[in-house]
Amino acid sequence: MYKIASSSYSSIIKRVPGVKKSTISDYKRRWLPNMGTIKSGRRSEITATTKSYIRQSVITGKLKTGKDVQRYLCDLGCAIGYSACLKLLKSMEFQVRIKKHKPFLKAIHMKKRLAWANAHKDWTKDDWRRMVFSDETKVNVWGSDGVKYYWKRVDDKLRFHHLDLTVK
Fold first, then answer.
1. I need a surface site. Which of 9, 38, 134, 149 has the fewest CB within 10 A?
2. Helix 82-91 and helix 66-76: axis angle, to 10°?
3. Predicted confidence band at 83 (pLDDT cuts at 50, 70, 90)?
4. pLDDT of residue 32
């Protein structure tokens, strides 16, 4: 009985000709309600251990992009495409976000900025009108630098590798 229950529909139909698939399905539902369905489809080449390593590597920033994940899997011998890597990351509940721009300031830079602000905190409006600020804006002549993305889960905090550090 168990051998029949764990067999596929096509193998049962071969052994018992003339039986319809719906009849087999009805008998299975009626007499073997606790039997689970047989998983269909292609088995995943990526093991649970590999998925766990990829998850941890994306969280820590070792693997930053879908291309990095694809390269890692290709090095392991899994022939997987880029879109499949993105689906894998989404199945792990990762979401893609645009990197946040943040100035790259060291502790000494912050101290200098605070000292400058404290030195000028008592200035009047007339004093500020005489001040000229020069904007050191970076201008791209041949197109933009592009958008940089990162992967994170919904509840994860913002980490260092999620930032696009800018320097003037």
1. 134
2. 110
3. very high
4. 77
